[in-house]
Amino acid sequence: MRLWAGCDVGSTTGKAVILDESKVLAGAIVESTLDPEKTARQALDRAAADMDIAPAGVEFVRLVGTGYGRLQIPFADENVSEITCHAVGAHHLDPKIRTVVDIGGQDLKAIALNDDGTVMEFAMNDKCAAGTGRFFESMARTFQLSLEQFSDLSLTSTKPVSITAQCSVFAESEVVSLVAQKKAPADIAAGAQLAVVRRVISMARRVGIRPDFTISGGCAKNRGLMQLLGQRLKMKVARLDFDPQLLGALGAALLARRKSA
Amino acid sequence: MIGAATRKDSVYLRWAARNWLRILRLGVNPGPARMLKIRKRYPWVSGFLKVNKLMARLMGERRGAYRQATGFIINRLIDALATIVRDIHRRRDRLVWHEDLVPPEILHAMGLMPFMVEMLGIVLPMVDTELGEAYLDEAENAGLPADTCTLPRMSLGLALRDHFPPPLAIVSSNSPCDGGMSSYAFMQKLSGAPTYRLDLPYRYKDDSAVDYYTNELVKMIDFLEEHTPGRLDDEHLREICTQRNRAMELELTLWDMLRHKPAPLGSDVVFLAHMLFFGLFPGMPQATKMYAGLVEYARQSLQAGGGIPDEKYRVLLWNPATLIFPEIFSWAESEFRATMIMEMLTFNRHPLIDTTSRRSMLRDLARIMMQGPMSQHTRGPVEYFFDDLFFIHEHYSTDMIWMAGHVGCKNTQALLGMMREKCRQKRIPLLTIDYDLGDSRVVSVDGIKEQVRMFMDTVMR
Known about the structure:
The structure holds 2 protein chains of 2 kinds.
Chain A: E1 4-9, E2 13-19, E3 24-31, H1 36-50, E4 62-66, E5 78-79, H2 82-93, E6 99-103, E7 108-113, E8 119-125, H3 133-143, H4 147-155, H5 168-180, H6 185-207, E9 213-216, H7 223-233, E10 237-238, H8 247-259
Chain B: H1 10-25, H2 32-41, H3 51-59, H4 64-90, E1 95-98, H5 104-109, E2 113-116, H6 119-127, H7 129-141, H8 150-160, E3 169-173, H9 178-191, E4 195-198, H10 207-227, H11 234-257, H12 267-280, H13 285-303, E5 313-318, H14 328-336, E6 338-343, H15 358-370, H16 375-378, H17 382-395, E7 400-406, H18 410-413, H19 416-426, E8 430-435, H20 445-458
Parallel strand pairs in B: 1-2, 1-3, 3-4, 5-6, 5-7, 7-8
Helix pairs in contact in B: 1-3, 1-4, 3-4, 4-12, 4-13, 6-7, 6-8, 7-8, 8-9, 10-15, 11-13
């Protein structure tokens, strides 16, 4: 069996997707370690295990690395930026997609796609954790909740409070202060979601928001965020029939297959 | 790929020796003792000793006539700077500070010594980014906001440290930006010198605006005649304007040659030439000689198949060039086979000067200043900015635009959204480089490279 793989080593998680000639066979997500090579290896091993193949028995025709750690994957045949990979992955799953916002663990990227799925334009914020997964982690930690519980809590809000801080560090102190003021936790949680939504929309506007619009990255699993985003954008946020956190790895695997086709 | 010419090949060594000779001549005139005093009084002079390092960075892997042209223009730069250092002493009784958008031709014709205040703010970060940082901090500590453009901020820092030669008078203008204007208010107070500010009207492309600005120049001359020993000599002005026209014709020839694919030269050479021509010695015979030399190098380069024979991309750099990373031009050539073909500060389409009368000369000088670097793009209706941008893009058949998004330039930062939309409509790939013109502590050179690589790897893939 001819196999291709994509490996996306992000700041908080490592992802891998394995393809054959026609379909996705497996995908896996692992926590990032300090060593990008090790993270990539663990993600691939986990994906291989899902296919009931011993890691040592897997050989890839071609493997493409992506994500911030892509340059440290020595066994990758090529490395490609995650922006290209998210665009390729989104276009493959839904060719109508024209705008992708990738909300990663520590960065935020807005990508405008051409009709053929290539990147027309992009904007990114990689120097600040505002509007990223790290922001939600700090918010959830403040409430001593898991990310999922935090998201569910925000959905019960009736009157989101305004959180002004754009910076994750200051937002955390602002939330502590709101808790001290006896604001309802659900309203604070919804306020935090709204702060991120505004940040995401602002970033997306830089590349021009054109339908269809979708979100990738781990934060796309945050139901509260997705609901608010749709409301604010006044646009349906397309849900791809695939784990949004694996979109970059999928794009990398597709590029690997395309190159050796 | 471009061949790997060694950093210290014969071309480099020849130009490096000439640069050293030019610097050493300062030991003869004004003489070693005077030179040591000047060095103590103006510590930035030592920065010029690093000029050969700058030349090596700019030369990169360039070869043939293109490499020669790079050495040549750096030699012209050090010659111009050395001349200024020499004259700081020799002509101190005629020294006038002027802003970069004030016509030095008139000061020369009045027998004055023009000292362009912004010159060091341009040159120091290019030579070594750390040379300017202390001046930036000085200005910030004195109250100039930290987000003011680094160019006026560095100039003010130099003035605050008393590292400028004292002026008889100051001539500035209301261009290009508020930061520049406020820095001159500080400088006037610091130096105690009488100051005249030229007022550039908002819409400046009609005849009444040109008349208005011409009258502004007349008032500036009156002011200078009142406060300095300078007197305007019409014949001298005519000689300067005639010489300027010759240089301008050669510059137009050079610009035309850049339309060839592959281009004979990159725009750093052309940019430096224009800066010297426009800001330091316009109308001087050395400017004409400089352009004649560059046209010859460009011709040789074209005959050899172009500056980068396997040119893959042509880039239009917009906004002030990345002073903290002047080798972006040669880096782009070797990394992406991309020639940065033209940039905003160079391509000023202005008329040749009508030398019939004093009024006609002043009128055309007014027009040149109104359409000069930055004036054209940071004042007046937004159409001036975009008309130029897209004209140059088409004229030079560039494949993409790199917007040097200098964080201190509020005027152009405000246009970024519109620029993105317009480029999108025209399907022109646009990269906005976040950086600061003269302060590598804001975004490092590696940070700039990373942004460019990301763009080339995704949008231009």
